[in-house]
Amino acid sequence: MSELRRDPIAGRWTIVNTDDPQLPESYDHEEPRTGKSTTCPFCYGNEAQTPPEIVAIRDPNTAPNTPGWQVRVVSNKFPALQIEGNLDRRGLGIYDLSNGVGAHEVIIETPYHNKDLCDLTQQELTNIVHLYCQRTLDLEKDRRFKYIMIFKNYGASAGASLEHPHTQIIALPMVPKNVKEEIVGAHNYFEYRERCIFCDIIRQELQEKERIILENKNFFAFCPFVSRFPFEIWIMPKKHTSFFCQTAFEEIPDLAVILQGIIARVKKIFGDTAYNFIIHTSPVNSDGSNLDSYHWHLEFMPKLTRVAGFEWGTGFYLVPTPPEIAAKFLREAKVD
Ligand SMILES: [Zn+2]
Ligand SMILES: [Zn+2]
Ligand SMILES: [Zn+2]
User: Fold this and answer.
1) Please, which of 71, 98, 213, 274 could form a disulfide with 330 given CB 3.0 to 4.6 Å?
2) Active-site hit among 29, 113, 130, 166
């Protein structure tokens, strides 16, 4: 019989196929790279094709918007939300609306078109993570913004419209629903137990070890007991930290090692598969009431299945591979 599992944070249910677990080789996934070489606006020499750079790590002898950079941050050319204007929240009968105010930036992770994060040096990835923080800290100065979301789409089936490796940062004028659910769930747990639920999960997972993939001094990666997707992976700081950008400078290399390690393992098992990751952190410009109960984390999802009618209709997720089995495959994947 399959198992119904309830997420202790957001309260959602999943159906885990513990009866007849699907093994890695039976997943059909799309290759993220088409190999088509159309002119790429993120490649060296094409800097004029993007909006002007906001910040870059580059050779000091080079000018902005020319080659010579290692990481480059630009505004999204087709932003979901725009920085100018007032939020102007208003009602329309029973409906609420506001102007599409926000910010939408792109971090071009490397000049190399065909490299993924796991192909970069640890220092290069550390630089990228520093820039995530630098941009977040800058964006949150704008009091209109309540949430800064960092996310990556890798491969067309994961929603990437350009192949060249990049991450996106979006600043939102309200806290998104998925985050709010976690914040409320974590807050309720804290009210009841006076402990952070994420810290409790860490303690239990480190003790049981069954779902752990990788760990080092400051971070660890595991397949959550209530995964929504097969081979879903979370990375969490071991120490209670509510904001992603509170991660200490000297701890960032540890995060880079874990992130590279899980991407390399996923690729070892599934080849060059599409994936998404998102960073869930505390809201900005808020009353700070969630600081003891909310713990930032990175959620990583290889794109192995499609969300179908049952999921859309119920909010339940069907998980063909139990996280215990997924973690075992990931832990044992041999990567250099
Ligand atoms: Zn490119
Ligand atoms: Zn915590
Ligand atoms: Zn989350």
Assistant:
1) 213
2) 166
